[in-house]
Design a protein that fits this description.
mainly alpha; 434 Repressor (Amino-terminal Domain); HTH cro/C1-type domain-containing protein
């Protein structure tokens, strides 16, 4: 299974669930596989680039409500890529 397919499978498993402890790893992998820049990601989710950087370094994470949205949108983006 290629990396993009593995990531899609993982995102499908957690969409709508509680935020997993590996949010940082999933975010970084999604951005890498989907070739999404920090700037583009920040614009898509209406957050600042420093916020995305903190999420990527596991210094902070989005609220539980936003978590579900982030996973759904990442999955949607990867499926359309």
């Amino acid at each position: 299974m290629d990396p993009k397919e593995k990531l899609r499978k993982k995102l499908k498993e957690i969409t709508g669930a509680e935020a997993p402890t590996d949010f940082c790893a999933l975010l970084n992998a999604s951005m890498e596989v989907g070739e999404i820049s920090t700037k583009d990601f920040a614009e898509k989710f209406s957050v600042s680039r420093p916020t995305v950087d903190r999420w990527r370094r596991d210094k902070n994470r989005p609220s539980s409500i936003l978590n579900k949205y982030v996973y759904e949108k990442l999955l949607e983006y990867l499926e359309n890529k």
